[in-house]
Specification:
Distance between the termini: 80 Å
Helix content: 40-55%
Low-confidence stretches: 18-30, 32-44
Order of helices and strands: HHHHHEEHHHHEEHHHH
Mean pLDDT: 90
Strand content: under 5%
CATH architecture of the domain at 56-165: Orthogonal Bundle
Largest sheet: 2 strands, antiparallel
Radius of gyration: 26 Å
Shape: globular
CATH superfamily of the domain at 56-165: Cytochrome c-like domain
Length: about 350
């Protein structure tokens, strides 16, 4: 009888130890999961939060801020080819075609720190630009238009809105979410053929089977902007560079589905879509003279593909990649590695 009791006691002790171990592991797992969720939540909480429009003051300054926001939201109606205030944009696109949600979407080419970081040196022009100059860059390039007078009421209003939007941003600084989110560089060239299949699946329903976009019934503005053709952005625009375009696409497109924290496309798919959209053999764009851009050749971004370069890589590789060898060579030779 005693051996049986001894064996039973040993069995029960073993089972109790197993239960304790399982319980401890479960508690550790729950604690880790809770910690992980807290980390994610903390990360989300650290994103810059722009001020609410309800806090715009009700005075002369506030009126200019509201007017500036209205101009940016409805640029074609005020300042496009058929604008009621002036005709500066040339193709019916608007600021929100790229700067989403009136410039307030995290990782969506927002204006969070724009006012805080200008004036700044721009390698494309090789000189210091004011924020007004930079606004005109967008009017001339993506909007295929002509520069607005820097002292005009409309330019002052746009700058007033940007200043108000970034009023809590430190001068000269950045805040979380104000830049495009990082994307992994591929070990192969981006493939426009693969990109076309992805475009047909995810993008065509908004941007059209020939990238023509959807023009509103009033004929003034686009509900969905064209991605190539005579009404699209010019070569030399930031969105015409493959990496920059892929960063924007991954974390913002399709427009009705993707969010920065819930992308639809992978890094690889975003790069392939960007290659298709910006493929000059398949698609045409408005002509622009790029011969005076980037007067310091080594300052050209990795994905700026208009020759000449201060590195030994081909125009095709600067267009489609792979970009890692360019990055590594430039880093080893003390050249800028930006994109």
């Amino acid at each position: 009888m005693k051996p049986f009791v001894t064996q039973l006691r040993s069995y029960l002790v073993t089972q109790l130890r197993i239960c304790v171990v399982v319980l401890c592991c479960t508690l550790v797992f729950i604690g880790c999961a809770k910690h992980e969720n807290e980390v994610v939540e903390k990360k989300v909480d650290t994103l810059f939060t722009p001020p609410d429009t309800s806090t715009i003051p009700h005075n002369a300054t506030g009126d200019m801020i509201r007017y500036g926001r209205e101009l940016l939201v409805n640029f074609p109606y005020y300042l496009g080819p058929k604008g009621s205030v002036g005709q500066y944009g040339g193709n019916g696109l608007g600021c929100q075609s790229c700067h989403l949600d009136a410039g307030t979407r995290p990782y969506g080419l927002n204006y969070f720190s724009a006012h805080a970081r200008y004036p700044q040196y721009r390698s494309r022009e090789g000189k210091i630009l004011t924020l007004g100059d930079r606004v005109n860059n967008c009017v001339e390039r993506p909007l295929n238009g002509k520069p607005m007078p820097l002292d005009s009421k409309e330019m002052v209003a746009i700058l007033a809105y940007m200043q108000w939007l970034g009023k809590n941003v430190p001068v000269g600084g950045n805040v979380p979410g104000d830049r495009l989110k990082d994307i992994a560089l591929l070990d192969r060239p981006a493939d426009p053929i693969k990109g076309k299949a992805l475009y047909d699946k995810h993008c065509m329903r908004c941007h059209g089977d020939d990238g023509q976009g959807v023009l509103k019934t009033d004929g003034i503005a686009y509900a969905y902007p064209p991605l190539w053709g005579p009404m699209s952005y010019q070569p030399g625009s930031s969105m015409h560079r493959l990496i920059k375009s892929a960063q924007f696409i991954k974390y913002n497109m399709p427009f009705d589905l993707a969010r920065w924290d819930k992308p639809v496309l992978t890094d690889e798919e975003a790069m392939d879509v960007a290659a298709y959209v910006n493929d000059d053999k398949m698609h045409t764009r408005p002509f622009v003279d790029l011969s005076n851009e980037y007067p310091v050749q080594k300052e050209k971004p990795l994905d700026y593909y208009h020759a000449p370069y201060a590195d030994p890589f081909s125009q095709v590789q600067h267009k489609y990649g792979p970009f890692k060898p360019i990055f590594d060579w430039r880093k080893a030779n003390g050249q800028p590695t930006g994109y």
